[in-house]
């Protein structure tokens, strides 16, 4: 594992540890459970897993409310289990990154307990306190369905404290050098255990300034650069992945001059893939990709179709949001905050053609793709469960009771209608015609072609807005991708320079392109352009 740029063409896989695999029968998924499933992840072609927070937590935000930065919650196992998981994952050629939540702690963290105990506490200044709740009023509220203000009144000490998420998640004060230093120590602790990097949560919000929207401030970047330089000095080859739900031009500074984040999620392309599939037109996708600025050579975007949160519609216009809700979340309870709390497969009507097509787009865009656990088998959701829990139900391993997730009653209800009896890993893993196998094949061909790891993407004009056609090229390797977004067969004009014979990556056969080509509904083609 010596290639320091490994992340530039890696396939990532996001795991909710609690929901993945229970090794000890207590109903909660755990680190040993993940270790048991490394062969599975390796078979799929995963290069790196991202594990959601495993820190002790009162779970008001599923672990993103941390009560102790230096331990593993007992439900998930121990520090030794983590070390063993990292060792075994590395043996499988798989790296592991974890969540690093810098912006806030739980209100049960001892720092906050001390901070709120007394205005003169040495920890008072670890958090952001104010006599008035009128400060920073240009900062938006993120959890709009539950929070009415970013300030919460503390009765005992008679001041308000600042929080960008739930009131139970007070923001740390990054203007305090001690906080800055503490968080470097936290990073050091996990890096010393062997973790391959961090998915850094909620980074736009570290610093607040009057008169700004308190996002993406220069002082925030200054700190993140310090964190990066600390990692470069002592832990080369480990990465920082940026969670900034922003437009590409606002994410761009998080890459710095290649001296801030290695990777950043590309949030806005995600809803536009779903828009494209519904409209049967690629223009929204093309527009946002054109609007995406180049990034330094040693950086990479991270693309995804779904994750553990609601499908966020923050990076679309209000009209587009309304349209997306109408199209994809007709029932009000499917909506949450600025998004849609549903999984990938049900969003696409469990239609195998659309599910493959969406993945064809995911795996051929610039950037390293992330798969959300269970989406590779087309697992469903349970919208009866509150908040985002409906997309965090137990992984469906087989058709035995509890979906093979646990020997005991799971921490959460499963997807309703005993879906696991029909949709599970065991039923798909060895079947060449399963959805799992089609995802696995895409990963295989993606990895076989350096073109996908590069940054170039050239849209090809074929005279048909229903088919997204583009060329990816890198290191002398070139692929031509065609995705028919429409529910009808569509014909495209093939530019002269492509009117030749090419290798169809999926069939392994030559395909002779003439001046026109017709693609079946939702069909996709990956053609290797031979020199
Ligand atoms: C982003 C995480 O993805 C989300 O799950 C969490 O609620 C917020 N950050 C707050 O940590």
Number of strands: 22
Low-confidence stretches: none
Shape: globular
Strands across the major sheet, in which order?
Answer: 1-2-3-7-8-9-10-14
Give the termini distance in whole angstroms.
Answer: 32 Å
| Cα gyration radius (Å) | 23 Å
From the helix content, strand content and strand pairing, which structural class follows? alpha/beta
Counting copies of identical and different chains, the oligomeric state is: single chain
The largest β sheet comes out as:
8 strands, parallel, barrel
How many distinct helices? 15
**Ligand identities:** 1-deoxynojirimycin
Proportion of helical residues: 25-40%
Averaged pLDDT: 98
Approximate strand percentage:
15-25%
List the helices and strands and how they pair.
Layout: E1 12-15, H1 17-20, H2 31-36, H3 38-44, E2 48-51, H4 79-91, E3 95-101, H5 110-115, E4 129-130, E5 151-154, E6 159-162, H6 177-193, E7 197-201, H7 218-234, E8 239-242, H8 248-251, E9 263-265, H9 269-279, H10 283-290, E10 300-304, E11 311-312, H11 318-328, E12 335-336, E13 339-340, H12 344-347, H13 352-364, E14 368-372, H14 425-428, H15 435-448, E15 458-459, E16 467-474, E17 477-484, E18 490-493, E19 501-504, E20 510-512, E21 516-519, E22 524-528
Parallel strand pairs: 1-2, 1-14, 2-3, 3-7, 7-8, 8-9, 9-10, 10-14
Antiparallel strand pairs: 4-6, 5-6, 11-13, 12-13, 15-16, 16-17, 17-22, 18-21, 19-20, 19-22
The structure holds 1-deoxynojirimycin.
